[in-house]
Structures are given as C-alpha cells and as structure tokens.
Amino acid sequence: GEDVEQSLFLSVREGDSSVINCTYTDSSSTYLYWYKQEPGAGLQLLTYIFSNMDMKQDQRLTVLLNKKDKHLSLRIADTQTGDSAIYFCAERYSGYSTLTFGKGTMLLVSP
Amino acid sequence: DGGITQSPKYLFRKEGQNVTLSCEQNLNHDAMYWYRQDPGQGLRLIYYSQIVNDFQKGDIAEGYSVSREKKESFPLTVTSAQKNPTAFYLCASSKPSGVFQETQYFGPGTRLLVL
Fold first, then answer.
1. Which residues of B touch A31 (CB under 8 A)?
2. What is the pLDDT of residues B48-85, one digit of tens each?
3. Which of A54, A46, A2 is nearest to A20 (CA)?
C-alpha cells in the first residue's frame, strides 16, 4: 500500500530553525501539502507545492522538494512557541481527488 | 464569515446506538470529505463526495454512512456496526477547479466517545 512517512517527534529551542521531513510514495503525485494541527483542533493548511517545483518560500516557511528521492521538507525559520503543534504532510496522486496523509510530526518548541 | 462548521464538538454514543455528526460549509465548495483521526495516527478517509447526490467510500467506510442532499452539507452517521468508534472526526471541503484544485480546508472536528 501507499504510505507517507514522517518522523514522529521534533524538539527545538525558540529562535532556532525547525526542519520537518516527509517521504512520499508516488512520483506522479501532483500536489504536496503541509498542514498544522493544534491540540483539539482541525487542520490548518500551511502551504503546498506543485511537483514541478523544487522550492517554495512563504514568510518563515520554506518547502523543499526532491523528486528523485521523493523527499519533502518543511523548514520553519525563527521557530516560536506558538509553532508547537503536529505537522502533517499529504500527497495527492495524479488523477485522484483524495489526499494521503502521513502520521504527523509533533513539534515541541521550548523557551 | 466563510468556513466549515462541525457539530457537536463532543458526542457520546451508547452501545448499539447510531449517531450523526454534522458538517456544513459556506465556501461554495463542490467536494466534501470525512476523515477519522486516532491518537498518534494520520488521517484516514471514511467517505467523500465530489458532487451533490454522489459519494464514494474511502479506506475505512465500514460501519459508517453518509448523504449529500445539499451542496453545503455532508452528515456522517456512525452506525452500531462500527465497533470502535471512539476517535476525532474531521470534515473537509475543496473546490476542484483552477490552480488550487483539491486543496482541502478542514473544520474544527468532533470528538466521539463511547459510553
């Protein structure tokens, strides 16, 4: 079956950069997404990248895509305590409307 | 305000009881989705609907049913056949057109607990 893999936990200090990694399965995936989930809440779309892109930057967020290795990363610059949450990577296969999610990476930011 | 609403926030189910979770959106989105989230797990797709009066099973549809009579609404019924219903249920919607095709936006979730 298809799996999107993420490391389960990341701990950083406030002000440092955080890098959350994800490997996906389908080289024909068209869109790749990063969502943030705070405790007891729904998912908030952070950013997305098309498969024909290598990088996308949006304020403190940088997404890098390595299609050869099927590797996606989310870098958060100047990480704040408010960034503490679970981050989900998701992919959408070409020709399909549904998303496949990883199990999420819990980011803990300490003061 | 445009968005997706889910109700109730918490729901308790007794053994053998069917319960219905509400999901409403005023984003004029065509597609709607239901996911189940268990602790330490990713999201698993239960059902989805791309258009009114049509829906498809996701990966874990057994024990669940849906309807899509209106564009704005996609209620999920957890039937007594679902033996392990305790989970966090998330509804999402998307507008499958243009550059942002299939970008899904999520509601705040409903936590279902079994008494």
1. 101-103
2. 998 899 999 999 999 999 999 999 999 999 999 898 99
3. A46
